Amino acid sequence: MYKEYSKIPTNISGLKRMIEFDKKFYLSDDILCKVDRSSMFNSLETRAPYLNKEVHSFSKKIPDKFLIHKQKGKIILRNILKKYIPEDLINRPKMGFSIPLDEFLRNSLKQWAGDIINSDLTKNNEIINYKSLKLMWDEHIVLKKDWHKKIWPKTKIFIEIMLKMCVKKEFTVLVLLLVLNRKALIKNIFARNTQKELFPF
């Protein structure tokens, strides 16, 4: 992961570096993989037109202000679509292909998630508020409240897997902190690390 990340140019904006990171890891290892498996399972042939070579090459030249504006992305596409479809369809909340994660955490993933949440790694982790996480977990498993959106994506219970898979633990933590926008903790990592060239941000 670090080897591939180090290939991302440093002479581009932070936004474009995040996009490059997504293309290298999120698209290839997650979204495109899921689409490919799902389509093959249902005997469908799918295409990703925005990954066309010419479109991709053009997209890299688009200025940041046309990529994100006032916390909204896909500015160019939105403006084009306004000519053809109602605006409420363009600006509606994003809809994904979600799974019943709330049920999984109470059943098939309960033991696994519980072991991570109650591990020393989670208890002693400076990114996670353990008391808050433990309270949410206890309420979630007894159906008192559905906390799966907090337990899973916001508190990153998969951090243990990331740390175990990646040799350079500080780098992995830094990537997660960038996702969580925890600037103070990022500065602490820089202060602790003597080889700052490892983190070319």
Please provide a written account of the structure.
The chain is an all-alpha fold and 201 residues long. The chain has 13 helices and 2 strands, in the order αααββαααααααααα. The longest helix has 28 residues, at 14-41. It is extended and about 50 Å long. 7% of the residues are buried. Mean pLDDT is 76; it is low at 179-183 and 192-201.
- The amount of helix comes to 55-70%
Q: Evaluate the radius of gyration.
A: 20 Å
Uncertain runs are 179-183, 192-201
Main sheet makeup: 2 strands, antiparallel
Number of strands: 2
Span between N and C termini?
Answer: 16 Å
Provide the spatial order of strands within the biggest beta sheet: 1-2
Gross geometry: extended
Backbone structural class = mainly alpha
Query: How many helices?
Result: 13
- Approximately how much beta-strand content do the residues carry? under 5%
Mean pLDDT: 76
Give the SSE order as H and E letters: HHHEEHHHHHHHHHH
Keywords:
201 residues, mainly alpha, two-stranded antiparallel sheet, disordered C terminus
Quick take:
By secondary structure, the chain is mostly helical. It is built from 13 helices and two strands, in the order αααββαααααααααα. β1 (68-69) and β2 form a beta hairpin.
